[in-house]
Amino acid sequence: MPFSILISDTLKKDAAPVFLLWEKEAPTASLLWKILNAAERKYLSAPALADQLKLREGDSKVFTLPGTGRRIIAVGLGARSGDAAKETKAAAMGVRIAVQTARREHIARIACEAGVAPTATMTADIYEVCSTNAVMANFAYDEYKTKAPSAPKPLSEIQFLVPKEPSKEQFAAMKEGIRRGLVIGEETNMCRTLQNMPGGDMTPDLLAKHAQDTAKSLGKAVKATILGVPEMKRLGMGGVLGVGQGSVVPPRFIILEYMAGAKGEKPIVLVGKGVTFDTGGLNLKGSDHIYEMHMDMSGGAAVIHALAAAARLGVKKNIVALVPAVENMPSGSSYRPGDLLRTMNGKTIEVLNTDAEGRVILSDALEYAKRYDPSLVVDVATLTGAAMAALGLRYTGLFTTDKELEEKFRALGDAVVDPVWPLPLSADYENDIRGTFADWANAGKPGAGGGASTAATFLWQFTKDEKGKQIYPWVHLDIAPRMTSIEEEHLAKGGLGTPVRLLARLLEGEQ
Predict the structure, then answer these.
(1) pTM
(2) Which of 284, 257, 253 lies closest to 269, judged by CA?
(3) In whole angstroms, what is the distance from residue 391 CA to residue 350 CA?
(4) Would you please indicate which residues are annotated as catalytic (active-site) residues?
(5) Domain count of the chain?
(6) 163 and 223 part of one domain
(7) For residue 181, which of 128, 203, 411, 496 is within the disulfide window of CB 3.0 to 4.6 Å?
(8) What angle do CA 47, 51, 53 make, to 5 degrees?
(9) 433 and 395 share a domain?
(10) Which domain holds residue 355?
């Protein structure tokens, strides 16, 4: 979707002005009001329409203006709070609603008022967030649908109109923010496409091929390496091999390397859970949610496309993405409850529940990450229903023992409208996951609760050395609550692309 910034008050003939209206603020103060002709302003000022322009938060209306037939879109943002994070979120939601409304009404081009922030950096960040959210709202996964004439149609352009010519620095910041927002929005949508693909079309080998194709599309910037069963056996990846042995499609271990930083600089390693379909294994899932389990590779998709975003943006850092890709299937060759698996670092896992497979495959990936002597490891996984029980559907669960990282990730999430919320990670949970016949059990004690924290505590063990000392800074993101969109987010149903935006901002800011 192309974007343009017009440094004037000229509005293209077929562009629909978008009024993003804060509570108790009239549209008359907007630049967009000033570019309407006298008859159009008179029509919108009529008492009969005044009440219709008083919209509640999240509501939108389309008006057709007399004479020109121009359509305008009005969107309610709610009351101003004075809180920067809340107002950023409200503005992002307003952009999403405007785009979704335009799609439904078959409006090909819209125009939004834009301004500048106190600093160029803030201006670039605002335009990045708005552009990212516009691209996300313009997405729908409809590859398997017969296209009806009445179906929503994607926008072709958004204009940003500014009230006066900004300084060269601010203008450059606006363009840079839009450039970044387009890239991040597109990579988020690629992640969503992967999430939404049916399991038969996104098996471990196909996910590996997608990663290779993504690397090729980025030229020589990204190197892709795919490990098969023989290579994983030599490395002793008993976790990945154990979970994957029940499927007719062998597991893969995906490695993407983007080394654009200084030689010898420690990389950031992103680890993503890549369970391309999760039946629960022999502990078979119930029928209520198993149809969504083609999305259990959402973490893997997210880290692939966060790295791709960084490469496209030219981030000058060393970044690695690791994705253990498996199908968790029931069969005569499946791993069983009671099996004992030896992982890459030699620690053993007692399988109490074959549906707690994500942490098992991630154990090998977290060990493999040590090879890079990383400055930071972030793992991303649709790991537990317990995180959903704790947080609902509005926050990603955040786990780390590093308070600075906790604060940083919360701030990053708020800044890009990809929010996270901290949950406990403590050695107190270790007694709940000690194995009877192995070092660690892949499920907590019955009735102990705290499933999201015990899962995170399990992963924590594989970030440590043999003496129990943590080897690298580490953050675990449980994205199960944010796997799919909810109605109030004004996005297409299906995968949400969490946390590509957060990771992209993390990588941008680490330069």
Answers:
(1) 0.96
(2) 257
(3) 28
(4) 285, 359
(5) 2
(6) no
(7) 128
(8) 105
(9) yes
(10) 189-509
